[in-house]
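_Per-residue structure_
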Amino acid sequence: MYTEIMFAEYDIHFVAVNDGVDSQKGENDLTPFRNLFNEWYARDCSKKQRAVKRMKGMSGERVSSHAPYGYIKGEGGKLMVDEETAPVVKLIFDLRVEGLGVGRIASELTRRNIPTPGTIEYRRTGKTRRYLPHAECVWSATTITMILKHKEYLGHTVNFKTFSKSYKFKKRYPTPEDQQMVFKDTHEAIITEEVWETVQRLSQHRRRRTNDHEPGLFSGMLYCADCGSPLHFSTGSNTSGKDPRYICGSYRKRSVEKCCSAHYIRQPVLEELVLENLRQITKLATEQEKEFVRLIMNRTLSKQQEDVKTLQKELVTKEHRIVELDGIIKKLYEDNFSGKLSDERYIIFSRDYENEQHTLKAEALDIRNQIAEQDSKVVNINSFVGLARKYTSFEKLTPGMLHELVEKIIVHEGDKSSGHRIQKIEIYYSFVGDLESSHVVAQRTRKTPAA
């Protein structure tokens, strides 16, 4: 394209000294062959380099040339904790656990005049790739997001996080997580597994801000028991002032299919219920650890057995239908062979039945995998007990406490049939799920008019 078309079109004089090519002396018949051989050589070098990197990465050796922010490269390329930047990484994760979004975390680091990763790299190596002279301490939400996703902070080596489609392209694409290679405990961790799990769980929820630019205490944690939608935080008003409350996200929607009741619950009521239940659970987990472990294991085993029975029943139904379809397809073939069924009809019917059978086989395989996962599930009770020990004494709820200890809260609709408004909530705790004692009820007496 260049030597035979573009250079000629723009009257460019092209000279390749080592290959004896000069466009003013006419075309060289061997040039296309040289180009082809050079292309093969470059492709072969690329394959060999990829093979070497693949071998190193599969053996657990770190293949990335850059150390993540918070680490420095030591002997043999092993990551070592950077005493200057590791505390900043811990601060970022702690602020996220406290409920701050990535934008507010970036603003907080900027306010504290903490140098950005690009600034640190420039001061140490002189590289200007990510350095902004006019904004040495101005953090961006994108940088915070990337830091919160690094598994290296758990002490793991993660290889093959990106790939290129061809050696001709410089652009790299993210590799799906199930295709990445993770080698655990290869260097010193900066954050704990519990903090990591909490942060990743928070990243899956979107917290809505109010007019005061502050999200609700339980935002992103409440879900409707009937439709599964998140409950939205609202700061309405009543005779005594502001009335912070939560309402089902699909309430008042125009779509009939998604419409749901309000599931209205006031934040002060919710705070009181969760605070009291948290005190009971953390006390049981720390003071009577053996009893706590027994309760969780019994409940987990019971639920696991119920789930496995349901899956096995569904699997038997699908396998029975698969065998039945084999008989139907065989009968169709016999009818077609004997002339009872035309070729056109046979093709249509057999294709439909084979597609159904193929779908059922895929669903059956998925169910078998689910049963295998249920059999291998282990509740990480020690992780929850470790978190509970951090909060042995507390007077009020804080965002950090909630996000670390509570995974989600299911809110039921209030029941007024008894003359009182009775509302049930289910609290699911991190690592251990819900317990019988975490199903609590709020009761409020309805006011009767004066005589």
Remarks:
- The mean pLDDT is 83.
- The first helix runs from residue 2 to 9.
- The chain is about 45% helix and 15% strand.
- Residues 235 and 241 are 10 Å apart (CA to CA).
